[in-house]
Amino acid sequence: xxxxxxxxxxxxxxxxxxxxxxxxxxxxxxxxxxxxxxxxxxxxxxxxxxxxxxxxxxxxxxxxxxxxxxxxxxxxxxxxxxxxxxxxxxxxxxxxxxxxxxxxxxxxxxxxxxxxxxxxxxxxxxxxxxxxxxxxxxxxxxxxxxxxxxxxxxxxxxxxxxxxxxxxxxxxxxxxxxxxxxxxxxxxxxxxxxxxxxxxxxxxxxxxxxxxxxxxxxxxxxxxxxxxxxxxxxxxxxxxxxxxxxxxxxxxxxxxxxxxxxxxxxxxxxxxxxxxxxxxxxxxxxxxxxxxxxxxxxxxxxxxxxxxxxxxxxxxxxxxxxxxxxxxxxxxxxxxxxxxxxxxxxxxxxxxxxxxxxxxxxxxxxxxxxxxxxxxxxxxxxxxxxxxxxxxxxxxxxxxxxxxxxxxxxxxxxxxxxxxxxxxxxxxxxxxxxxxxxxxxxxxxxxxxxxxxxxxxxxxxxxxxxxxxxxxxxxxxxxxxxxxxxxxxxxxxxxxxxxxxxxxxxxxxxxxxxxxxxxxxxxxxxxxxxxxxxxxxxxxxx
Length: 542
Description:
By secondary structure, the protein is α+β, with helices and mostly antiparallel strands. Helix content is 54%, strand content 15%. The chain contains 19 helices and twelve strands.
């Protein structure tokens, strides 16, 4: 076989070499997003260039057709791989057919048509050898199917790249500009060949133009992070968020909703974009209120379709002139947190109630421990705790503290004649009398048996004597009257001592009162006696 080397063939081999170098940079990154279709694109372009280079050097029609047919799958695969690269790299998978092999049906059919062209002549009707070893292919109807499908994929790729500008951050747009510029070189070369104004008459410059694309891709890999810093579509991010997102424009119309919001609210309409927010959120007035609320963070309860608590955070979207362009509402499911808080609050309320009950019981137990169960008066233990405190206060405030010691007369004889039940009843009556007659600040205690002690803070000897006489006078007829004359009448005798006149300590004051009580008993009972008898006994009627 003879070969005739031409400038066009050498340019094709150079283009294949350049694309092979670019493939060496792309291949290690083939697992990145867009890496596999980009590697496939370069392999296809290499096959295209090499096949057409040998076709250009062959000197017979048969050899040229064979090598042209060998390079033809590469030419058909390039626009497919470029389309798949753009779809994957810009995260625009919704524009690609599913399953992906559907995009290869037309190229596969056309390759089969190229291989079997000698039988049907629908791809190339005839071949004409011209001077300078150039073979002219006369195109049949299937050729225009190839061209139309290829241009459709390339135009779709350009449209996807342009649309990606609005869905990605500005920092990624240089990559899209690079891809757009690089795509135009082989497209212009192919258009020039198909419509007959190629700078190389009857020869396709598109494979050579792809060498420029390969150089640009290599530069993008090394300088712009192509296949390393991969843009992620904003819509893709929002749609994959677990939180629900509602985006409104400046007129509070729906600009976008993500899948989580659709699921949470059970939305069935598909034409949500442009819908007034009042119409969208009418069934959830609490959620609608957050759009206009002065607060940017609000908890809302959504009662249907699935009851849940959500934390709604609102952000204002403004332009570079600080003009309002819209609002973004992010709804976070805090149902588990709120239910836990409610459970903790209920548990805390129950615990607080239990503590209050315990404190009440403790107070009751303490009260019982300090009270005489029969009379309801304080007991001797309480007297011991209180006496010293009251004495210290009287000394600090320089006020008197009177102590009255009381003993019920003839109480033993009452028990002997009428039994202990009658005696207990008399003690209860006397306890009731003390509570009724004494001041709120006075302290009445059952000291033991039928003995009682009354502490009277700030009461002078005269005042204490008067109150003691009032008690004695009131008690004298009490038993006979209360028992319907059934029980023997019981009287009381009392001895009184005053701090600081009579004593300066609790024990001394109690001893002085006991001495005065003994004097009252010895003087005939049913009387009140003061220690040292400084204060004469007087009738309560005086």
